[in-house]
Design goal:
globular; 70% helix
Length: 334
């Protein structure tokens, strides 16, 4: 695959992470006195509904738009698809309370760094376990360097006395993200298109999140600032961001995309400085530099081509570097 084609997919995943990184700033600029769980469930409900609408429009315009070219009939894999979607949806729903409760117990800095920092680690480990392929030394080095940068950004070393239950909840959020990333990747491997894969998982998650939203006080959504925040969190950080993420997952390994997702806390830190007027000390600046180095390393990973599986009903295990490649007409390099 040509380098410029690979860079395009790396850029897709990076843009998704940047949009995800605006979540904290959007909440800071929104109304006060609302439940984090209410905001999280509203985010999934709106974003999932947006993805479902996009998928429906595409399907109405082209009945084969939700699956990969050459995969017109996905019925033989229907049973597995249902389970993959359920696992991914449950992971998305479970991420919200685990993340918000973890940060409530140990603070936003500690809770966020544990949840986001553990995400790519769990993804790579699960991918290694499922596919029996080590994600690669570049992935390992990039992950270690970037996580070290996030550790400095959050100043976790000075936190002290962290609540063990809060740590467990934040780690659970990291596990949930890993299960979502791998579920979306499996749908792509099975023949679903990027839009189809995220629409299935987030659509199911949106249905499951509605009862959670209705059980909370969601009156904040009736205010102007609350409505703007809810729409941004749902449409920008879910619908649009997940479309970019899905196209990144089409070529990049799940562990690679998860590590690129470390741009999320980097974005949050920069927005905090320039928009919320927070002050970064030398330690925090060094942390940002480390995250940037990690992103450059992970962006240098080259996708590798895999032979087509002999049995369409049992696709081969994804590669550690690239599970799906572009059509032959678009592949001009090794």
């Amino acid at each position: 695959m040509c380098d410029y084609l690979l860079v395009r997919f790396v850029l897709f995943a990076f843009i998704a992470a940047v949009l995800f990184g605006t979540t904290g700033t959007a909440q800071a600029l929104g109304p006060e006195g609302f439940s984090s769980i209410s905001v999280g469930s509203a985010r999934i409900t709106i974003g999932g509904a947006g993805l479902a609408v996009v998928a429906l429009v595409m399907w109405l315009r082209n009945r084969s738009a939700l699956w990969q070219p050459g995969q017109p009939d996905l019925r033989p894999r229907t049973g597995r698809t249902v389970w993959v979607v359920i696992i991914g949806a449950v992971a998305l729903i479970g991420y919200q309370p685990a993340f918000f409760l973890g940060t409530a117990m140990n603070g936003v800095a500690v809770g966020t760094v544990i949840a986001i920092g553990s995400g790519p680690i769990f993804t790579g480990l699960f991918e290694w376990l499922l596919n029996r392929r080590f994600p690669g030394l570049i992935w390992l080095a990039a992950t270690v360097i970037a996580v070290a940068g996030i550790w400095l950004l959050s100043e976790i070393g000075e936190a002290g006395g962290a609540n063990s239950t809060g740590i467990l909840l934040s780690l659970t959020a990291g596990v949930c993200y890993a299960f979502y990333a791998l579920s979306a990747k499996q749908l792509l491997v099975d023949g679903w298109s990027p839009v189809g894969s995220v629409a299935l998982i987030f659509g199911a998650a949106a249905i499951g999140a509605v009862p959670i939203l209705l059980s909370t006080d969601f009156s904040w959504m009736a205010t102007a600032s609350g409505a703007v925040m809810a729409l941004w969190l749902g449409i920008a950080t879910i619908t649009i961001a997940c479309l970019f993420l899905a196209y990144g997952l089409k070529v990049l390994a799940a562990s690679t995309v998860a590590t690129l997702g470390l741009a999320e806390p980097l974005t949050a830190s920069l927005l905090g400085v320039f928009l919320l007027h927070e002050v970064l000390d030398a330690r925090s600046i060094f942390g940002i530099v480390l995250v940037a180095i990690g992103l450059v390393l992970i962006g240098s990973v080259r996708a590798r081509r895999r032979p087509a599986p002999p049995d369409p009903d049992a696709p081969a295990a994804p590669s550690s570097q690239a599970d799906l490649t572009l059509p032959a007409s678009q592949q001009t390099g090794a």
